[in-house]
Amino acid sequence: MKKIEAIVRKSKFNEVRKALHEADIDFLSWWDVKGQGDAKQGLIFRGIAYDINAIDRIYISFVVRNINVDKSIDAILKSAYTGESGDGRIFVSSIEQSIRIRTGDHGDESLYNREDELDEK
């Protein structure tokens, strides 16, 4: 199991969420966040200097089975890409254990994916 975390442009979030849905990744969490990259910018408006380095982003987090890692990453890469500085980052880390509280399922069985629906039919 892997945890995938991505920081993407706020303007690309709906495209990313749709691409993940099409890749059968429907269970995820997201937060509005602000971040600062290496670009140094400032804005002067009516004689007042504003720091515009803090940029609105969306932080996405979800856990998937190992077989779904590559298609999840591909979905984010293709949908979040603009080709400009500030497109975001993707982080992948290992998950030692997962437990579904309602059923007590452990490991891969505790995760929601389309395979759960296919197994039941």
From TrEMBL:
Keywords, ordered alphabetically: Phosphoprotein
Record-stated family: Belongs to the P(II) protein family.
UniProt record, GO biological process: regulation of nitrogen utilization
A Gene Ontology molecular function term of the record: ATP binding
Modified residue annotations for O-UMP-tyrosine: 50
Organism for this UniProt entry: Dysgonomonas alginatilytica
Top-level lineage group: Bacteria
Record's keyword annotation contains Phosphoprotein: yes
Designated name of the protein: Nitrogen regulatory protein P-II family
UniProt keyword annotation of Oxidoreductase present: no
Cellular-component GO terms for this entry: cytosol
Pfam families membership: P-II (PF00543)
